[in-house]
């Protein structure tokens, strides 16, 4: 009976305030409530309720029905069912009430996001009708979550407070389940994230509850270090035990007493005790509790923690990490820091990061969560450091004043830049409002003019640090950089612009692999990307900046391309010549890499800067120079040149097409295909794809040009049907044009003949009528005919003098003047025939023009 009574009391146990011994504290409620959920409580319905009022919630077999949804919830379901039916994150939220019945909290959409206020990944459910939060629950690393019925996730928030999410589909449930498992370091294939008690057996539950009387840490004594180490190792396997142990360590000086024993062991040379202390301290770190970190990483304890971690039993000799941190790792103050709290926070953050990265073992994929709180601790420390520096008005001003000082030596400037680089890296941890304020302050202090100075220096470390700082600024706000560049251009007199300095650093990179050039090219691409350019009613950043770039900068950017191909441009019809010097230059690997970077950015410009780059290509004959690079032995450069041409053709712009045809710019492409021979490689595929695209899109002008110029050369290639297909397209278009020409000839003549017949019949009727009235009919006079002939000759002479060439079919209108009987009659007949024919021809011309406007020009160019 005594034991039973003890069990009864334990089950209904007292509050934490009623216990004076923290070691006998009531065990955490979360696992206990989770256990109740899986034994005594009904589950939410197996299917998400429909949006119709007619359907009621289905109950789980063997359980009581949950409460039906309220009317307001059903109304929200009806309103949102159509608009959001396809969202796979749609859920129903249920809460367990005191009567062990499920209450519906509402319907909404769930997402897993990081919430700073909760300092962890949380499940957020927002209402689908009011956009208000129904649920905000932090994913606790120790809370057991259970996945059931493929669409249900259940867990406990607090004592007697269970939560369930019922998903509309299994896919959305699986995605949220994977996020939960990732936070807890579990395999998503499990159904339960933590070890749960078998609630069906009361004896096991009672035994766990009775641990209130036996959960005692061994006394902190030198002789019991092994016992303490074993105890902590055993507790780490139990989520309940870890919570209990953390509560004890938070409220006692146990950790400080352990660190005192560390000094005793070192003084005595007790190697075994030091090995035990290593396991003890590492185990406490794996409890992953921020409150414990505050104790262990305090100024009076952190170096002792490092000392304990030096004595790894796996090492023959301990590593001297404390010596490194105190003697080798020197804290450099580029500008004196007077705030003692700030200095202490910097020291602490560096040492904690050293512990995580150097002293602790690298966690496996499923153990990453073991140190998640430690990572968060470091993150928040960095935020605090940046905030304190930002709020110090004098500190940043002194840094920039020294950077602008031309008298300081390179070593001092290097230290200042290294500090500022790390400061910018830390600033990435700030929230957007704080980050906005910081970068606005940096702009006011003149960060960009300082970078312009230091990027031009010869010291590679200085240039590298300046480039990294510039990267942070570009990624944060490209518009800010563009605005500075254009303002600088208005004030600069020598033309030494910041963006040209960046371009110069790119094309003059001495790294054999061009690592710096690749980096800077990426930054230029961000600055030239129209997608991140702003447009306001009073300002269009895109047109202003692109106009500026193509006027002041692009010639510097493509200077290496012009320098490499300058001597290869010939005055004749050939596209490219090739002297030995330039061939050697093209075959140089570093030069080829640089040219490939330039072509990559130019290809991007063709796609996104349609108007500006088109004018530049046509005015500078740029494609002809680019195709010279196909003579290089480096296939990657040949492919870059081909990709540039392919992007131009892909726009299906007739100006580009005419430019390519007039310059015979397909010749180097065909030569590259022929020189490649029978090799089936990327170059072969890229060239074939180019011609296949022209065939499929039926770009008529290019089809005609290719067939007429190169078909005899390419017709032997039969492993693809591309070139035969081009020939077929060409013949079809040619037949269609011939048919149109025949129609243009036949339609006017038939209509003119019909009109002429009606005029003659009318004249005959008039002649008969006049004869019956007895009027004298005068034959046409020769003078009248001569006068009319002279008028026609005069008109033709005048047209010749004006150098106006009438269309050929208009010249056939001379047949209209075949007969007349009198001068007035002849003039009338001339007027009728002329106006009728001209009107018809104009209508045909208009119809033809409209037909030609729909696709590109339909008439193939038959001669060049």
TrEMBL record:
GO terms (BP aspect): DNA damage response
Biased amino acid composition, Basic and acidic residues: 794-808, 843-856
SUPFAM superfamilies, sorted: ARM repeat (SSF48371), PH domain-like (SSF50729)
Any one of the GO CC terms: nucleoplasm
Ranges where the PP4R3 EVH1-like domain occurs: 88-184
Polar residues bias (residue ranges): 828-839
GO molecular function, one term: protein phosphatase activator activity
The Serine/threonine-protein phosphatase 4 regulatory subunit 3-like central domain, residue ranges: 227-732
Pfam families per the UniProt record, alphabetical: EVH1_PP4R3 (PF22972), PP4R3 (PF04802)
Region annotation Disordered: where it falls in the sequence: 1-29, 44-79, 794-864
Similarity field: Belongs to the SMEK family.
The name this protein goes by in its record: Serine/threonine-protein phosphatase 4 regulatory subunit 3B-like
Species per Swiss-Prot/TrEMBL record: Zalophus californianus
Lineage, broadest ranks: Eukaryota, Metazoa, Chordata, Craniata, Vertebrata
């Amino acid at each position: 009976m005594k034991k039973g009574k003890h069990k009864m009391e334990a089950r209904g146990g007292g509050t934490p305030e009623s216990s004076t011994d923290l070691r006998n504290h009531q065990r955490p409620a979360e696992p206990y409530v989770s256990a109740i959920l899986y034994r005594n409580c009904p589950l939410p319905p197996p299917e998400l309720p429909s949006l119709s009022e007619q359907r009621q919630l289905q109950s789980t077999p063997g359980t009581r029905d949950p409460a039906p949804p309220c009317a307001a919830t059903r109304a929200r379901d009806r309103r949102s069912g159509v608009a959001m039916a396809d969202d796979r994150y749609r859920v129903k939220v249920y809460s367990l009430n005191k009567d062990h019945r499920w209450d519906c909290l509402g319907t909404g959409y769930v997402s897993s996001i990081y919430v700073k206020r909760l300092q962890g990944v949380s499940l957020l459910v927002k209402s689908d009708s009011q956009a208000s939060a129904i649920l905000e629950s932090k994913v606790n690393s120790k809370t057991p979550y259970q996945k059931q019925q493929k669409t249900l996730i259940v867990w406990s928030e607090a004592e007697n407070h269970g939560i369930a999410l019922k998903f509309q589909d299994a896919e959305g449930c699986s995605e949220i389940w994977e996020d939960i498992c990732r936070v807890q370091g579990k395999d998503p294939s499990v159904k339960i994230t933590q070890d749960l008690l078998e609630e069906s057996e009361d004896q096991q539950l009672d035994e766990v509850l009775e641990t209130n009387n036996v959960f005692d840490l061994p006394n902190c004594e030198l002789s019991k270090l092994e016992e303490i180490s074993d105890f902590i190792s055993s507790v780490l396997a139990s989520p309940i035990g870890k919570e209990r142990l953390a509560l004890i360590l938070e409220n006692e000086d146990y950790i400080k007493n352990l660190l005192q024993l560390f000094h005793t062991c070192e003084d005595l040379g007790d190697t075994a005790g030091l090995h035990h202390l290593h396991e003890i301290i590492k185990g406490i770190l794996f409890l992953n509790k921020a409150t414990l970190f505050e104790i262990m990483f305090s100024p009076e304890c952190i170096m002792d923690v490092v000392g304990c971690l030096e004595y790894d039993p796996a090492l023959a000799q301990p590593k001297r990490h404390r010596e490194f941190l105190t003697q080798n790792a020197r804290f450099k103050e580029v500008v004196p820091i007077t705030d003692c709290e700030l200095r202490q926070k910097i020291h602490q953050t560096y040492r904690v990061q050293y512990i995580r990265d150097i002293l602790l073992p690298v966690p496996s994929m499923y153990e990453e969560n073991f140190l998640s709180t430690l990572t968060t601790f470091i993150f928040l420390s960095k935020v605090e450091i940046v905030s304190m520096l930002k709020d110090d008005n004098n500190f940043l001003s002194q840094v920039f004043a020294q950077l602008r000082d031309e008298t300081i030596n390179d070593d001092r400037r290097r230290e200042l830049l290294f500090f500022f680089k790390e400061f910018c890296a830390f600033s990435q941890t700030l929230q957007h409002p704080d980050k906005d304020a910081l970068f606005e302050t940096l702009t006011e202090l003149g960060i960009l003019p300082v970078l312009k100075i230091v990027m031009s220096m010869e010291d590679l470390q200085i240039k590298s640090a300046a480039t990294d700082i510039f990267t942070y600024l570009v990624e944060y706000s490209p518009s800010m950089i563009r605005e500075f560049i254009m303002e600088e251009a208005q004030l600069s007199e020598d033309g030494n612009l910041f963006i040209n300095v960046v371009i110069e650093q790119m094309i003059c990179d001495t790294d054999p692999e061009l690592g710096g050039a690749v980096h800077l090219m990426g930054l230029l691409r961000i600055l030239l990307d129209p997608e991140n350019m702003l447009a306001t009613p009073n300002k269009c950043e895109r047109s202003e900046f692109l106009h500026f770039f193509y006027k002041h900068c692009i010639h510097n950017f493509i200077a290496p391309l012009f320098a490499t191909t300058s001597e290869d441009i010939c005055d004749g019809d050939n596209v490219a010549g090739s002297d030995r010097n330039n061939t050697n230059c093209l075959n140089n690997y570093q030069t080829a890499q640089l040219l490939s970077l330039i072509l990559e950015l130019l290809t991007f410009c063709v796609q996104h800067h349609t108007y500006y780059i088109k004018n530049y290509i046509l005015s500078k004959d740029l494609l002809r120079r680019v195709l010279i690079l196909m003579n290089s032995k480096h296939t990657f450069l040949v492919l870059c040149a081909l990709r540039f041409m392919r992007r131009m053709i892909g726009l299906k712009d007739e100006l580009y097409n005419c430019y390519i045809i007039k310059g015979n710019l397909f010749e180097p492409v065909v030569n590259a295909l022929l020189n490649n021979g029978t090799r089936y490689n990327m170059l072969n595929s890229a060239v074939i794809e180019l011609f296949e695209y022209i065939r499929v899109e039926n770009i008529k002008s290019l089809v005609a040009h290719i067939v007429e110029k190169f078909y005899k050369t390419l017709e032997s290639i039969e492993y693809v049907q591309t070139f035969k297909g081009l020939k077929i397209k060409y013949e079809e278009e040619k037949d269609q044009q011939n048919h149109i020409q025949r129609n243009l000839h036949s339609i006017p003549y038939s209509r003119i003949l019909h009109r002429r017949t009606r005029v003659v019949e009318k004249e005959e009727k008039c002649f008969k009528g006049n004869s019956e009235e007895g009027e004298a009919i005068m034959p046409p006079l020769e003078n009248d005919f001569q006068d009319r002939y002279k008028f026609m000759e005069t008109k033709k002479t005048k047209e010749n003098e004006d150098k106006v060439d009438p269309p050929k079919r208009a010249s056939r209108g001379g047949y209209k003047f075949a007969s007349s009987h009198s001068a007035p009659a002849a003039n009338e007949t001339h007027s009728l025939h002329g106006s009728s024919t001209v009107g018809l021809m104009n209508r045909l011309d208009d119809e033809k023009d409209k037909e030609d406007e729909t696709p590109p020009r339909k008439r193939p160019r038959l001669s060049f």
